[in-house]
Amino acid sequence: MQVTKNSGTDAAATSEPKKADSSAIELESVTRRFGQVEALSCVSLCINRGEFFSLLGPSGCGKTTLLRIVAGLDLPDEGAVRIGGVNVHDVPAHRRPVNTVFQSYALFPHLVVFDNIAFGLRMKKVSSSAIAERVKRVMAVVEIASLADRKPSQLSGGQKQRVALARAIVNEPQVLLLDEPLGALDLKLRKQLQVELHQLQRRLGITFVYVTHDQDEALTMSDRIAIMNHGRIEQLGAPEELYERPRRRFVAQFLGSCNLLGGAVKSRDGSVVSVQTGVGVLKVDLGAQMPDAVQRGYLALAIRPEKVVLDPAGAGINCVRARIEATVYSGAETQYLLRCGEHPLKACLMNATAGRPGLRVGQEVGVYLPPDGLIPLED
Amino acid sequence: MRRLSPPLWLTAGAIYLFLYAPVAAVMVYSFNSARFGAGWKGFTTQWYGALLENTQAVDALKNTLLLAILSTLVSTALGTLLGYGLSRYRFPGKVPAERFLYLPVFIPDIVMAVSLLLFYSLLRRWWEFFQLGLSTMVLAHVTFQIPFVAIVVRSRLFDLDPAIEEAAHDLGASSWQTFRYVALPMMFPGVVAGGLLAFTLSLDDFVVSFFTSGPGSTTLPILIYSSVKRGVTPEINALSTLLVLASISGAVSVMLFQRGRTVKGWPA
């Protein structure tokens, strides 16, 4: 078949959907100010189609503002937002192909559950027979089929959450935005709904953008996480990557617990660097990466408590002596709070691999900080 | 709960007596068969019957109701929009607009009445519409009713999570659809309460009505005033009683409506 020559405008038009294939949402240098405060500072971000993406950070870090800007409920002062490759700067919230699950659920108090869920379809003038069928189907999916005639005031927290979810996904949005949707629920229900939400996302294949301040939630559910602080993205990556290889102090401390050690670089031998830290000289293999700080003669290191090895008789490279100050037993594991000179250290051991003789409070032990467990930080 | 000591109890009793005895007297005397004087000559409902045949009174009643209904409809619509706009939108000059909302509530009626009279007579030079009569009265009543409606509606909106309207927006509703299908139904109890309040205010307004009325637009309060100048008749007592009952039923409806919304489970 003969292919006719494309004009310039056609070529431009076809390049747009190509971009849309991979990315559901793109933010380019988005800045949002509230008075003097920058809630978002030049944030750029690309969220892939079909992924479960989390925005994780402490309250006030700008994650909800970012979500509202994508939804169109707030407008950026600078920068561009693209949804499915289309710049949505001039598209009002009610015409964007995204739906939101609000933190407070924001159900319509004057409408019964069925009408709450049908609201979006009614606004789109879907026929009433199609509405009845789609609402029924989505109510079955989130397991609230028996609640159709209830008012929101007659629902429990968990039920409200399901209605809010159903009300959003019934519209089959390109992207579902979730603003701390499980924040108001008790722990047990939260755990259960985490699993359900994750499975639902896999089943529907809709891109989820999930805002949370709960690190466990983000770690267990997400394909990728952006960790935010003070209106910036500190680090973006898969959960394992963020946990195992945090690049910055904030990320290391915010995600899980860690020991921070740092000090002057004493010597360098290829990629192996010796650092004079508060607990003694530690050797670390930096491999291919070489933080700028090394050039300035300083290196900060982090090590996860579960990577710390306690060995009563230990001695040698990266091995220091410390005193056990306290132990905290929490079922599956035990935490040891140690003090090495003036420097506190935390170690965490699984109780299943117990049988370590004589780790008692007040005792001196050898602490081995394995080089591959030491994470070099950029700041 | 502490017990009220006898002196306090007596004071309270006296206050209530001062408040309600005059109204009670008017109501009782409307059933007195004596045409003149304070002596009780037996029970009768003849004065209520006489009212129906008194064309002046019937006309005044018609005017009063027409004025109250028209002004309430207009002021409720405008006051609702004002209350909604003030609580849900950002716009330049919002703060002064909020401050000035309360001003007509505090301005003495007489000042309001005189200024409206002057204003209308000024406008009358160009527009025939401002000839004093029912049209100027409706306009004047709408003027003092709007802030009351707006304040009641706004306090209702204050209790409602703004995220609910954002959710409507997010689900594809335009600003108008959000107002029509979400905001209005949610604030409807406030709208009705504001409307009933406006209706009651119009019903028993004398000062503003008196200044802005023209020939043929006499309302019940004006009729009562002009009749009393020739002496209190039992018919006036009957008329006053009816007016009191109308006002009370208006106020009670407001209370019932506001209570009803919590009983029906409208969440905060």
Low-confidence stretches of chain A: 1-20
Number of domains of chain B: 1
Q: Which strand order spans the largest sheet of chain A, edge to edge or round the barrel?
A: 6-7-8-3-9-10
Largest interface: A-B, 29 and 20 residues
SSE sequence of chain B, one letter per element: HHHHHHHHHHHH
Content-based structural category of chain B: mainly alpha
| Oligomeric grouping of the chains | heterodimer
Mean pLDDT of chain B: 86
Number of helices of chain B: 12
Helix % of chain B is over 70%
CATH architectural name of the largest domain in chain A: 3-Layer(aba) Sandwich
Could you tell me the CATH topology label of chain B.
MetI-like fold
Query: Helical residue percent of chain A?
Result: 25-40%
Distance between the termini of chain B: 30 Å
Per the principal axes of the C-alpha atoms, what is the gross shape of chain B? globular
Largest sheet of chain B: none
Say what the CATH topology of the largest domain in chain A is. Rossmann fold
What CATH first level of chain B would be assigned? Answer: Mainly Alpha
Task: Give the C-alpha Rg of chain A.
Answer: 26 Å
What's the architecture of chain B in CATH terms?
Orthogonal Bundle
Structure description:
The complex is a heterodimer of chains A (379) and B (268). Chain A contains ten helices and 20 strands. Chain A is an alpha+beta fold. Chain A has two domains: 230 residues, Rossmann fold (3-Layer(aba) Sandwich); 121 residues, Beta Barrel (OB fold (Dihydrolipoamide Acetyltransferase, E2P)). In chain A, strand 17 and strand 18 form a beta hairpin. Chain A starts with 7 loop residues before the first helix and ends with a strand. With 268 residues, chain B is mainly alpha-helical. Chains A and B meet through strand 6 and helix 3 of A and helix 8 and helix 9 of B.
Give the key terms:
heterodimer; A: 379 residues; alpha+beta; Rossmann fold; OB fold (Dihydrolipoamide Acetyltransferase, E2P); 2 domains; six-stranded mixed β-sheet; 27% helix; B: 268 residues; MetI-like fold; globular; disordered C terminus
